[in-house]
Amino acid sequence: MAKIIKVFFLLTAAFLFPAAVLADEGGELLWWMVGDVGSISGTDKNGNVHLASELGVQKARVRYDNGSGESGYLTLWSLDENNDFVQEADSAAGVGLPAEYYGSLAGLSGDSASYSFVIELGNWSDGRWTGMMESESVNYGYLAAQKHIASWDNIAPVDSTYWSPSSYQVIPEPDGALLLLLGGALLSLRRRHGAKDAG
């Protein structure tokens, strides 16, 4: 009976006081921000500058990578009007822009110093992310030194600053017509080789 009461208390505390759950999981958060879509620009592989609004960007999310094949998306939290932490429902689906959020580092395995982070801008549709822009990759050490990463417990960040990348790269989407043309060329090449082998 005592175990049931303890579990009930922990679940109730997790629901009512999510910041306490963050502290129990390690409490380190990455504070980040992306401004209004109309003020964000990115450069494509040819050096052309595009506005995020031209590309239809609506959402942002934070990707992590430890350099050894482990990657994913930070669980995102925001502060409500009472300065209480509120968890976002699906961090992989991103959050609307403009955005000011906290990414929990509690789920990262191993040494935090091995991780790097990227802000991705795009859209979530039909259970799929369509990436359009991404920031440069920034490592944990730099973000911590700039006070973008800190341990916060039950209060809004104090003596910290948000990470707001100044530049983005445009991610090229595969061109359907180009893929169709390439497929047709490969098919005709295969038929030509097949005809030579038969003759």
Write the H/E string, N to C.
HHEEEHEEEEEEEEEHEEH
- Give the overall form: globular
Amino- and carboxy-terminal Cα gap: 83 Å
Based on CA atoms alone, the radius of gyration comes out at 22 Å
Largest sheet: 9 strands, mixed
Q: Label the structural class.
A: alpha+beta
Number of strands: 14
**Tally of separate helices:** 5
Q: Could you characterize what this model shows?
A:
The chain has 199 residues and is α+β, with helices and mostly antiparallel strands. The chain is built from five helices and 14 strands. A hairpin with a 5-residue loop joins strand 2 and strand 3. Helix 1 packs across helix 2. It starts with a helix and ends with a helix.
Secondary-structure blueprint:
Layout lengths: L1 H15 L1 H7 L3 E7 L6 E3 L5 E3 H4 L3 E7 L5 E3 L1 E5 L5 E3 L7 E2 L2 E6 L11 E10 L2 E8 L2 E2 H6 L3 E3 L16 E3 L5 H23 L1
Parallel strand pairs: 2-14
Antiparallel strand pairs: 1-9, 1-13, 2-3, 4-5, 4-8, 4-10, 6-7, 6-9, 10-11, 10-12, 11-14
Helix pairs in contact: 1-2
Feature tags:
199 residues; alpha+beta; nine-stranded mixed β-sheet; five-stranded antiparallel β-sheet; 5 helices; disordered N terminus
